Every structure is written in structure tokens, then in C-alpha cells.
Amino acid sequence: MDQDKQFKLALNQCKTINLKKMKIDTFLLVIHFLLKDYKKIDPNKTTNPTTICASKEEILFINNSVANLKSYLENNIIISDTLFSIFKEQNKSLIFDKLSRNLEPMKIYYKYLINTFSSRLKNGSDWIPELLAFSLIYNYKKEHNKSFLSYPELEKLPIEKIVNIYNKNNLELKKRISQKNGTSVWKIKTNIDEMYNVSELMVMKYLNYTYKINPSRKSKIRDKRKKH
To answer: Is residue 184 one of the residues assigned to a domain?
Structure first.
């Protein structure tokens, strides 16, 4: 990660306060945060149940998709490490104080998304960070007809191809559980299903969430007008 690049992105974000852009960027920030937790799969040694019937080419495709998307986001949006380092340095200089005040909406958006995610994830459950990240993108674009027009690489991301790999493996996983336990395939819920459900909830709630400006925060412009 290029720290100078990240700092420039933070400065550019604060040139004009655009809540719509901040909301989209925070959504992508959370996706990057999830991708950081991805453990690269060895296509020659995998015993991962989420890729039990994936071909070597499909596993390599997932590995590359995660790496490429993570790198792209690091070069185009503020990531969580940068955001919270700015707030940590808030009292150390005027520029960090200004940045932290201007980036406050992103901090609030981030906490809202993470809290929504945490409230649904069962304690001790095996979550699949990269699938949750890809599912968020899929749900946002395909289920809610939203786009990432400011980020052309995201528009070109073959999200359906990625999700279909997990769909295929999910069905195979359910068949194996069904054969082992004698349970109907349609009654079986896997961790893959849980990621789909969590992503659906996160996107739905986030799209309906509105950042509320702190009423206790006074406008400097208003204060100046009052003095005249």
C-alpha cells in the first residue's frame, strides 16, 4: 500500500464534501477490509469446503480477482487503515484535525456497516470474507440496480462469474451433507448461504441509511455572519 497515495486520496476527498460519494467509497472501503482477510487458496492442496468442486483454473481466478480488486481499491479509495490513522492523529496537527472532521461521515458509515454485519454473524461461525465482499458488490449491482460509474474497473468486474463459482460449490456441498445426514438438500443452510443473507441485509439497510449531521456542530460561515 502506497501511504503517500492514500494521503492524497484523503486530501482530495475533503476538497468538497460529497456525502453520496463518501457513502459509496465507505461501502468499497468495507469491501477492501473484507478482502484483507482472504487467505489465498492453494489450487493443488485445497480442502476448503467452499471450493470442493472448483477447478484449478477457477481457484486461480478467485485468487487473482481478490488480489486485483484489493490493489485497485488501494489506489482509488481511502482504506480503513488510512481512515482510522487520520482520526488517531486528529489532535496532533491542524491538517489531521480538518481531515478527521471532514471525514466524519465515512467513520459513521463504516461503523453502521460493520455493526450490521456483526449483528448477523453468529458467534463462532466460519465466515468467508472474500465471498461476503463479492456478494456485497453483486447485491448492490444486480439486486438493486446500482453502479460504480466513478470506478470503471468495478463496472468491468465479472461479478456473476465469480459468484457462480461459489453457487456451484454450494450446491455440491449441500449434496454431500444431504448424503451424509439424510437431510433434504433444500433444508440445508451453509456458510455460503449465510454470506449471501448477510450481504443482502447489509446492502438493503445501508441504502436506506442516512447520515445525520451533528446539530451541535456550528457552521463557521453562520458564525461569521452573526458577527457582522
So the answer is: yes
